[in-house]
Amino acid sequence: MINPKKSFNIYDYIEIAYRRIWYIIIPFIIIIMGTIVYLLIVPKLYRASTLILVTPQKVPEAFIKATVSSKIEDRLQSIAQEIMSRTRIENIITEFNLYSEDRKSRNLEELVERVRNNIKVDIKGKEGYFTISYTGREPKIVAAVTNKLASMFIEENLKLRELQAQGTSEFLSSELKTTKERLENQERSITEFKRRYMGELPEQRDANLKVLEQLQLNYQRIGESIRAAQDRKVILQKQLSDIELIITASAKKDEFGESQIFPLQMGLPVRNQTKSQSEVKLEQLKRELLELQSKYKEKHPDIILTKKKIKELEAKIGTSGSEKVDSEELKDEVLSSKSGTKMIDETDVKLNPRYKEIESQIVATQLEIERLREEESKVKAQINKYRERIETTPLRELTLAQLTRDYQNTKEIYESLLKKNEEAQQAENLERRQKGEQFKVVDPARVPERPFKPDVPKVLLMGFILACGGGFALAFIREQMDRSFRDAEDLEATFGIKVLANIPRIEKKAA
């Protein structure tokens, strides 16, 4: 083109089209013919699709909760990977005799990869459905393969859900068995602990305190009974001494007369009375010593002082006894010198009924004191036993609290596992009876009536557009390369001179 700045109108474009008509027609015809040839020689591919709906479980989740809680998208991805495995694809190729001609020239791996590329799974998990499609050359085989893939998805979903439910149930059963054994061991430990430390348990503290209080009151009562029995014994001994003195004095009076025996009669009761008071005081000191020993240790000052007083009083009583012996010897000498008769026989004194009665009372009182002391020692041992129980109760409480805490934790875990195991068993039965979430084929694959590839209208439209574009593009290029003058403007633009006149083209008319 000589003048690129030249402005064109519609008539100029029409003129260029007429002038370059063959540059437009020839590429158009060639491209259209090529498109038709492409449509004739390219292999026709058919596609079949099926729509699968994800139906929820038939039993409400408020009654039975499913153990398969993964999302539909994740589960479909897992199932798709399983279906797309090499083993499954080889079975499909063998079953439907796919690519029978290509098996001679290509290995099985390439055919498996081709089948994978021809399978398309469009997952719409949130909407609750997904589609499966397969592309191939034979319409019937394409529909059959698509339906086979749909059935494989359904079977694999049922198998996967059943395996997950069964695996969950087996795992919970195993954990439940282990937890039950641990719980039983802890129960035996607690039972053995309570049996071993019976009486020292925390729940027995109040009972032990009450028993200890009763034992202390009983111990105090027994001590008072012992003191009363000892006082009664002292009184009886005093009465027995008085009876001996009276009987002896009466007998001497009959033999020697009242005046001769009177000094002896007056002296003996005084010494016997002094001796009885010392013995009473000695018994009181011994009782005080027993009470102090039950409260304090042997090194306590009160116990040491009481023992010292007892020794002094015993020494004094021993001296009084020796004086009594001397007095008795003196009395015998006096009696023998004045009367010359035989000594008073003690058998006569002991045969006195009153003497025998008091002596029996003394023996009974002594036996009662011994019985009370034996009972006191037993009660004291019981007091020490219950004191030891009360002192060791905090330690047992700490150990029992730890055992109980572990037992309660294990029991809660066991109850939780038991509930989950029952739910897992119900969910497993639900999956076995196919009452859980399932895949349902809503729109099965049908034999396609026209090929999926190539799309004839689309290819023809693209060929027509390409042909028109190619022809006009070639005409435009040829016009741009043309350096000839077409009008006065081209001449003025080339030589820079004004054109005075333009002679139109003269064409000869037919004669």
Could you give the order of strands across the largest sheet? 2-3-1-4
- Bin the helical content: over 70%
What is the ordering of alpha helices and beta strands? HHEHHHEEHHHHHHEHH
Number of H/I helices? 13
**Rg from Cα:** 66 Å
Q: Give the N-to-C terminal Cα separation.
A: 37 Å
Strand content: 5-15%
Looking at how many chains there are and whether they match, the oligomeric state comes to: single chain
Biggest β-sheet strands, sense, barrel: 4 strands, antiparallel
Structural class: mainly alpha
Low-confidence stretches: 256-275, 322-345
Number of strands: 4
Overall 3D form:
rod-shaped
> What is the overall pLDDT average?
78
Descriptive notes:
This protein has 511 residues and is mostly helical. It is built from 13 helices and four strands. It has helices spanning 10-19, 21-41, 72-83, 86-96, 108-118, 139-196, 205-256, 258-295, 301-338, 346-350, 353-432, 456-481, 488-495, and strands at 46-55, 119-124, 129-136, 438-443. Strands 2-3-1-4 form a four-stranded antiparallel β-sheet. A hairpin with a 4-residue loop joins strand 2 and strand 3. 14% of the residues are buried. Mean pLDDT is 78; it is low at 256-275 and 322-345.
